[in-house]
Design a protein that fits this description.
The protein is mainly α. It has a domain at about 1-45. The protein has 22 helices and no strands. The chain has helices at about 1-5, 20, 25-35, 45-75, 75-90, 90-95, 110-120, 130-150, 150-170, 175-195, 200, 205-220, 230-235, 235-255, 260-270, 280-285, 295-305, 305-330, 350-370, 375-390, 390-400, 410-430. Helix 4 (about 45-75) packs parallel to helix 7 and helix 19 (about 350-370) packs antiparallel against helix 20 (about 375-390). It is globular.
Length: about 425
């Protein structure tokens, strides 16, 4: 069983390897434990049990997106629209749409659950019990996600950058953001121990970034408030974090022996034109369609399903609102403790700003590599659906257009009629 996998001498000739570590077989091990513990040997074949788990995880994935959109907008209609767009754009929400979902689809449902919990955790006005529940769910799902996929720490790095930018703009509670950083550190440490001392986690950019953020924050806290050095540190905060991150990552790679994911880093260097290679495998990868820039067909599909136009509209409104908030902060105006619907200040909600930044960063990845579209498109569905069904976002737009204040009930009725129309139009296009 497990011993044979950890001391495998059949896969590689004349070598005994730890197949669990090198092939990341943790999902298969968990599936086998569930298969035996549930007494399914006499009921169903192992392969069908495996397929059932995979499809069950996809159900969790879609449900997490549904809940996230619901939490953001306050209406279940946005969740329904998220699911509809996810299904309509199934070609772009998964890497393989003609077969059983591939390896990363074991992990992405847990990441979606983590994002849903993080959305609730970042909300300003949330009761203590709900906050604790969200915190525990973020912790559990972050660690599980890291165990399920060998490249999970790269995606968490993108998320950490989003939180860093959110904190730098002073649009979220710093204490909450740093609690998430601690969750990253704990998950990395626990993952390192339970993944047979996986050195890839030690040299990951996530660890370097989080360590740099914690150190930079410590230096800021030890500066006396109001002093020239304190103000200078605030200005140089981003530069300081980036410098420490790069330096720390360089030192870790110098002193920690590692071989994992070197091919990925070399590919990125060649892709960005920072290096050249004569390696056949690397050049073969560069020729793959999934590793090229997105084709016009990709944007055409998103446009035909009406997803891309609404996403761009929602993104523009949110970005303008965030810009207004930042300008007010520069002018010395504090954030409102309680934002009412009539205020039309969607950019003051930290969970919304986080998702805007997150989708932009994931979008940059998708624009470089079409194969990364399955990471970006689901959250595009979620953010676009939130915007369409959010009275607060439309109120923000109405205030800019200097329209008379629309009664929230009337606005809700208009949106409740618009959502089914959009879904029907998308289905008709499909």
């Amino acid at each position: 069983g497990v011993y044979e996998l950890t001391h495998n001498n059949k896969t590689v000739s004349l070598k005994t390897i730890n197949a669990v570590q090198q092939m990341t077989l943790y999902p298969e091990l968990i599936a086998s434990v569930l298969y035996q513990a549930s007494g399914s040997e006499e009921v169903i074949e192992p392969v069908y049990f495996y397929i059932g788990i995979v499809f069950g995880l996809q159900g969790i994935y879609v449900t997490a997106l549904f809940v996230t959109s619901w939490v953001m907008s306050g209406t279940w209609l946005s969740g329904m629209l998220t699911v509809a767009w996810f299904i309509i754009n199934r070609t772009d929400t998964t890497r393989i749409d003609y077969s059983i979902p591939s390896r990363e689809n074991w992990a992405l449902p847990y990441f979606a659950c983590q994002v849903a919990a993080l959305t609730g955790y970042l909300k300003k006005h949330i009761n203590c019990s709900a906050e604790k529940f969200c915190y525990l769910l973020v912790s559990a799902s972050t660690y599980t996600f890291m165990m399920m996929w060998e490249y999970s720490h790269y995606l968490l790095f993108v998320q950490a950058v989003s939180l860093f930018l959110l904190d730098s703009l002073a649009l979220a509670q710093t204490e909450k953001v740093h609690e998430v950083y601690k969750i990253y550190l704990f998950s990395l440490f626990l993952g390192y121990l339970l993944q047979f001392e996986n050195s890839a986690l030690l040299v990951s950019p996530l660890l370097s970034l989080v360590a740099a953020l914690m150190l930079s924050k410590y230096l800021q806290m030890n500066m006396k408030k109001g002093t020239f050095m304190s103000r200078l540190m605030k200005i140089m905060y981003i530069y300081l974090v980036l410098t420490i991150t790069v330096t720390l990552n360089f030192l870790l790679k110098m002193f920690v022996p590692h071989k994992e994911n070197e091919h990925l880093l070399k590919f990125i260097e060649v892709k960005l034109g920072l290096n050249t290679t004569k390696n056949f495998t690397m050049n073969w990868l560069l020729c793959q369609e999934s590793l090229q820039a997105p084709s016009q067909d990709f944007f055409l599909r998103l446009t035909q399903s009406s997803l891309l136009p609404f996403y761009i509209l929602v993104l523009i409104i949110c970005l303008f609102s965030v810009t207004q908030v930042i300008y007010r902060r520069i002018c010395g105006e504090p954030l409102k403790e309680t934002v009412k619907l009539e205020d039309g200040r969607i950019g003051e909600r930290p969970e919304i700003v986080y998702h805007v930044i997150h989708t932009i960063l994931l979008g940059c990845l998708a624009m470089c590599l079409e194969g990364m579209k399955y990471l970006w498109t689901p959250y595009v569905c979620m953010l676009a659906a939130f915007g369409v069904c959010s009275p607060e976002l439309w109120m923000t737009l109405f205030k800019w257009l200097r329209l008379k204040a629309v009664h929230p009930i009337l606005l809700a009725l208009i949106l409740s009629m618009a959502v089914p129309t959009i879904i029907g139009f998308s289905l008709w296009k499909e």
